[in-house]
Amino acid sequence: TQILAAISGNKHLKAIAPIMAQNSMTDVFNDHDGALELGMWETWNLESMLPNMLARKYKTKAELEQAVNNLMKNLDNLDTLYKFKPYKDWPAIGREEMPYFAKLLNYEPTHNHWKAIDAKSNYEKINVPGLHVAGWYDCFLDKTIANFQNGHSRGFGDRLVIGPWTHANFGQMIGDRDFGMAANAWGEASMHKQHIEWFNHWLKQEPIPENASVSYFVMGLNEWKTTEEWPPKNATNTPLYFQEGEVSAKFTPPTTSSETRFSYDPENPVPSNGGGTLHKELHADGPRDQQILELRDDILCYTTAPLEEALEVTGQVEVKLWAKTDAPNTDFTAKLVDVFPDGTAFNLADGIIRAAKQHGDKVQNNINEYTINLWATSNLFQKGHQIRIEISSSNFPRFDPNPNTGKSFINSTESQIANQTIYHSPEYPSHILLPII
């Protein structure tokens, strides 16, 4: 909302301080690298939008109470409702109550409806400084970073604060991890103080502390660091290659050819377990132990040997994956994990790519290179820890499962199993790019 206000060009607006703000409705909901943010889309409409729509529609107390009771029952039953197909006929929201629900699902990302409320395509209209707050496990992390980069690159004096937080939790206990008192936004980070200083400076011309442009929390170290640029200039993008064998991730490229296979069934997708989600608590956000999921046959784990010394990864993370599928279209997912000496495996960052998004009709039975954007993170892998990359094809209900048919569950209920092959060889060197400090 603040970003759109800044775009309006109102001369009375002098500064903004958006917390975990997105910049594109279509990127957030129906085009996350080709995938639909299903859990967020259905939950957000049900929890945040529908109550207001019901209050507008039903004028009598009895009608409204009945509608609200139905809403509460549906919220209690969300885990089952997530599985309903096709999504356009989702029974939790009636057509007469929210007529745009199905329509928006079918809008292409370039539709004028999305353009009208898109911020990133109107960045040049923003002429006020912003104090941007983000979280490593927030669903809008990459959007908040982009908002900062726009103002910072244009010399407006923007600042960025990134904590280990989720969209709704600014404390020290995030997910299954305790990041210490320093992580508390109302403690050392002192967000109240930063906001007051920010607005006093731009509205009252009071001096502002000469802090760096970016303050970020290093998980694992559990301390704050600063930099003038994002990503930090002292980070070196270093490939960690996938290989066969007991140690299946190495900083040296593969010298022999190998491949790994798995099958992906859209009717049995990998459950969401932590990350930058914004939906029902059963599929909670933040860092979560991945060990149970890693027992599945449709998750490949590429893991380093225990580290001989600590290693800090701070910046943007992406996977370069050489893969083949026998389906007309499919998805590939990647997850970066910190494995503790006791086996606990905490997720740090994850991403997805819908194959046809990058390769159109050249997906089926072709070896293609896929780029999977895992957004950003900052983590110190302690000595004795291991770096792990999980590769799979689903993350449900965060993302809609790809039916592998060339169609979508938005309008179809048909699906088929996809047989996936991941390559790791001198010719097809699948790897993750880690920004190492």
Structure keywords:
Rossmann fold, Xaa-Pro_dipeptidyl-ppase/CocE, alpha+beta, hydrolase, four-stranded mixed sheet, dipeptidyl-peptidase activity, globular, coiled coil, 17 strands, single chain, seven-stranded antiparallel sheet
Can you walk me through this structure?
- This protein is an alpha+beta fold.
- It has 10 helices and 17 strands.
- The mean pLDDT is 93.
- Strands 7, 8, 9, 11, 14, 16 and 17 form a 7-stranded antiparallel beta sheet that branches. Strands 1-2-5-6 form a 4-stranded mixed beta sheet, with helices on one face.
- Helix 3 packs antiparallel against helix 4.
- The longest helix is centred in the first third of the chain and has 20 residues, at 38-57.
- It has helices spanning 2-7, 25-29, 38-57, 61-76, 78-81, 100-106, 112-116, 141-153, 191-204, 355-359; strands at 131-137, 159-166, 173-174, 177-178, 214-218, 223-227, 236-242, 249-250, 258-264, 300-303, 311-325, 331-339, 345-354, 368-381, 386-392, 418-424, 431-436.
- Residues 54-81 form a coiled coil.
- InterPro entries: AB_hydrolase_fold (IPR029058), CocE/Ser_esterase (IPR005674), Galactose-bd-like_sf (IPR008979), Xaa-Pro-like_dom (IPR000383), Xaa-Pro_dipept_C (IPR013736), Xaa-Pro_dipeptidyl-ppase/CocE (IPR050585).
- Residues 196-433 form the Xaa-Pro dipeptidyl-peptidase C-terminal domain.
- Residues 250-283 are annotated as: Disordered.
